[in-house]
Automatic annotation (TrEMBL):
SUPFAM superfamilies given in the database record: P-loop containing nucleoside triphosphate hydrolases (SSF52540)
Annotated protein name in UniProt: ATPase
Pfam assignment, any one: CbiA
GO molecular function: ATP binding; ATP hydrolysis activity
Membrane-spanning residues: none
The organism of origin for this protein: Nocardiopsis sinuspersici
Domain CobQ/CobB/MinD/ParA nucleotide binding: 22-57
Length: 348
């Protein structure tokens, strides 16, 4: 991967022009949490940000302690400094009805189709249509300007954008290339006509300078491998890569000398048992053996994590880290994560 268009850039500069941030990652890496933290960080300078969830899991609502969200853009977070984060739980069927109403005035006809199950049937047998509707909702929000009435073209072209940034909580890495390559998926459905035109408009935004695809990983071999594979696929599609966001990072509990000694052979059992005996612990020998095993396991894990981090650094993308937060993630924890991202250069 060469420098320049898809190559390494400074953390701030790599995102300065981006308005659509697509977040993907292996299942279990905390992708939704990181997407929400990214949205909040981008709003920290007073920006207006939309967080779009496309998998129908209501993960953002769960994260924020909210009831399931309807298909509407709803303000969910107020950020000190005047920033706001709105959330949209995108739904392919609702997006199709909205599309029919917005561009063809077919609200009643669309509702009738929905009652007959035709909308769900169409999006089920044609997953490419589902994907273009979901990505289309996010890209429409990117293009939308203030003062728009019904169609994106209604507002003056020099009006400010309605949102300063849009963050998409996208499908996992195993599906992300197909999900974003909507032109290819729609080619088998429609080579001309409104669906094809809609797909072209979607791809115009996704392929543009204002879009970045970010990958969430852990310091573990399988998530890191999926990150490498996903980056290669996205690069192969000609899309612009963003950051690698390493989540749930744990600090080492020992200094370098103790880590090396523990990884290579473990602590001195006799000295450890003697110390435990002096502290009047029962069965100091057994306890020393158990503690020594835990210490060595920790040291070996730290060694593995450092090797994985080194491999991720070789991908040539800005590498940002988020800490493991004990006790789960809620709104307060989300603020901590967003602050960490802002400290590492994430801003509008």
């Amino acid at each position: 991967m060469s420098e320049g268009e898809h190559g390494p850039q400074p953390p701030g500069g790599a995102r300065a022009k981006a308005r659509l941030h697509i977040v993907t990652g292996k299942g279990g890496t905390g992708k939704t949490t990181v997407a929400a933290a990214l949205a909040r960080a981008l709003a920290s300078d007073g920006g207006r940000v939309l967080l779009v969830e496309v998998e129908g899991r209501q993960g953002v609502a769960t994260l924020l302690g909210s009831p399931p969200l309807p298909y509407e853009e709803r303000e969910m977070l107020s950020v000190p400094g005047g920033g706001t984060v709105c959330v949209l739980a995108a739904d392919a069927e609702a997006a199709l009805l909205e599309y029919l109403e917005m561009f063809y005035g077919m609200r009643r006809a669309g509702q009738a189709l929905n009652r007959l199950g035709a909308v769900d049937f169409a999006t089920t047998i044609a997953p490419g249509l589902r994907d273009v509707l979901l990505t289309g909702k996010a890209t429409e929000a990117v293009r939308r300007r203030r003062g728009r009435r019904r169609r994106p073209s209604d507002a003056p072209s020099d009006a400010p954008f309605h949102y300063d940034a849009v963050v998409m909580d996208a499908p996992p890495t195993g599906r992300i290339a197909r999900f974003l390559n909507v032109n290819s998926e729609v080619a088998g459905l429609a080579r001309v006509g409104p669906i094809r035109n809609h797909a072209d408009r979607v791809m115009e935004v996704i392929r543009s300078e204002q879009t970045r695809v970010h990958f969430v990983s852990l310091l573990e071999e399988m998530p890191a491998q999926e990150t490498r594979d996903g980056i290669a696929e996205i690069h192969g599609l000609g899309l612009r890569l963003g950051m690698v966001l390493v989540n749930m990072v744990r600090p080492p509990l020992l200094d370098e000398a103790d880590l090396a000694a523990a990884a290579d052979g473990g602590p001195d059992l006799d000295a450890l048992a003697a110390g435990l005996k002096e502290a009047r612990f029962e069965a100091p020998g057994e306890l020393a053996a158990a503690l020594a095993g835990e210490v060595r396991a920790h040291a070996l894990r730290v060694r593995l994590e450092r090797r994985v981090r080194s491999d991720l650094e070789e991908l040539g993308r800005p590498l940002l880290e988020l800490p493991l937060l004990e006790g789960g993630v809620d709104r307060a924890a989300l603020e901590v994560l967003a602050r960490r991202l802002a400290e590492q250069g994430v801003r509008l």
